[in-house]
């Protein structure tokens, strides 16, 4: 039942998900925003 990664008595690493979530969404959300903004600017040009 245990995965035995580092220590078998601890549960699955819960604090890493918060830092990983902030690291991924801190990069992904502005990236998607700028890609959408640059893509939309291509069609607005006269």
Automatic annotation (TrEMBL):
It is found in: Membrane; Plastid, Chloroplast thylakoid membrane. It holds the Pfam family Cytochrom_B559. Keywords: Chloroplast, Electron transport, Heme, Iron, Membrane, Metal-binding, Photosynthesis, Photosystem II, Plastid, Thylakoid, Transmembrane, Transmembrane helix, Transport. One of its GO terms (biological process) is photosynthetic electron transport chain. The chain crosses the membrane at residues 21-44. The keyword Electron transport applies. This is Cytochrome b559 subunit beta. It comes from Erythrocystis saccata. The gene is psbF.
